[in-house]
Amino acid sequence: MNKLVVITGASSGFGMSLAQQLSDAGYSLLLLARRLEKMEAMNLPNTMCRKVDVSDREAFENAVREAEDIYGKTDLIVNNAGVMLLGNMEDQNPSEWNNMLDVNLKGVMNGMQIVMKDMKERRSGTIINISSTAGIRPYGNHAAYCATKYGVVGMTEVVREELSPFNVRVLYVCPGAVKTELLDHTTRQDIKDGYVNWRDSNDVNTISSDDVAKTIKFAYEMPQGVSLREIVITDTRQDQ
Predict the structure, then answer these.
(1) Which of 24, 135, 160, 187 has its CA 20 to 30 A from that of 71?
(2) How far apart are CA 63 and CA 15, in angstroms?
(3) Is 95 exposed, middle or buried (0-12, 13-18, 19+ CB in 10 A)?
(4) pLDDT per position as a tens digit, 79-111
(5) Closest of 68, 70, 41, 39 to residue 52, by C-alpha
(6) Is the dihedral of CA 199, 200, 204, 206 positive or negative?
(7) Taking CA 39 as the corner, what is the angle to CA 14 and CA 64, rounded to the nearest 5 degrees?
(8) With helix as H, strand as E and coil as C, how does the chain read?
(9) Which of 27, 71, 139, 145 is catalytic?
(10) Domain residue spans in the chain?
(11) Active site residue 172
């Protein structure tokens, strides 16, 4: 299957699960993350792994062009890289805001811009941006994180309208609470403990990264003329 898929944040969580599933289905892959060894350890065929910070546009684009020279033009990009630094607005360190803005928003913008011109010219391609249920509803201690994930939803909608006349699909996926490394990014232990207690007390522990990856793969493999514009996927017991 001669189609190149680019996945950011591919060293853990949704990105790693999706890389494995798409590789098993025969796609060529470009995997991007800050931890190169984690991606290389998967030892996937027809796969290029590069250590890239998605907020570094030049490095991001160089990696995409390098992969395209080998595997052909990008048919799908999954802008999955993200950080979750929970905290309240009153006392959260602004450096944490900037980190999330750089990765969660600017990284997604970089990914879209790098591929969209060529997709538009080819009148084919898919862009999938990973947001969160925190991108469609508020949660306590999530102010800055919500701001970035609401931003992903908003700009995805705008770019979808811009590219839909050219048969390019642009959609967002909003996963709920899933056990990944994402919570480890948060620096306040009391907030992490509260999050885990909420998740465990509500038994919100069934859904996995593999489930989210399977959903993304399903949306991508629908015919090009079919766009699942927005997907919200949570544990059945999650009521928020």
Answers:
(1) 160
(2) 17
(3) exposed
(4) 999 998 999 999 999 999 999 999 999 999 999
(5) 39
(6) positive
(7) 85
(8) CCCEEEEECCCCHHHHHHHHHHHHCCCEEEEEECCHHHHHCCCCCCEEEEECCCCCHHHHHHHHHHHHHHHCCEEEEEECCCCCCCECCCCCCHHHHHHHHHHHHHHHHHHHHHHHHHHHHHCCCEEEEECCHHHCCCCCCEHHHHHHHHHHHHHHHHHHHHHHHHCCEEEEEEECCCCCHHHHHCCCHHHHHHHHHHHHHCCCCCCCHHHHHHHHHHHHHCCCCCCCCEEEECCCCCCC
(9) 145
(10) 4-233
(11) no
pLDDT at 35: 94
Which tokens go with 229? 């514009």
**pTM score, two decimals?**
0.93
